[in-house]
Amino acid sequence: MRPPIGNFSEAHPAPEVLDRLAEPVAAAVRAWRQVVPAAELLYVDSDPEVADTAVFCETYGEELLEQSANCVITAGKRGGELSYAACVVLSTTRVDVNGVVRKQLGARKASFAPMDTAVGETGMEYGGITPIGLPRDWPVLVDARVADAPHLVIGSGLRRGKLIVPGKALAGLPGAVVIEGLGA
């Protein structure tokens, strides 16, 4: 099957290639019960050496810069309590951690989670973290422009391979909150 975006040789419905996804992502796809059918989540193979957004877009299509979303793990602190959230923004924007995220989490301080923490808590590889398959108790903050996108490239949980998903699938994830201005 030809993917709807990007210069990939082929795409496969994610439920047909669960072995190519990080285990938490595969488990989420197996249990998928959203408005967007799981078969509309498409897996495309990609070189793990070019997983970072800029190089990825040079390799698989410059237009993907406008059609990719990054999932960033943040940590909020209030008192002695630490909470995590995933933030999903277009790759051309940056997460407003100190403003929007801090307020959304009700935290006194918010920051990007350290790489070891993000990897350890998600069970995914750095450079492939995706909002699909995150811990159920984490909020998933989704920029409104992500939710409105027809198709976006996101991680698969591994550096090798990506998912192409409708934005509304991300807006429908458990714990998702769509926010205007999350990405600046």
From TrEMBL:
The cross-references to InterPro entries, in alphabetical order and at most eight, read: YbaK/aa-tRNA-synt-asso_dom_sf, YbaK/aa-tRNA-synth-assoc-dom
A Pfam family assignment: tRNA_edit
MF annotations from Gene Ontology: aminoacyl-tRNA deacylase activity
Query: In this protein, which residues make up the domain named YbaK/aminoacyl-tRNA synthetase-associated?
Result: 48-170
Q: Looking at the record's lineage, which domain of life comes first?
A: Bacteria
Name of this chain's protein: YbaK/aminoacyl-tRNA synthetase-associated domain-containing protein
The lineage, from the top, is: Bacteria, Bacillati, Actinomycetota, Actinomycetes, Kitasatosporales
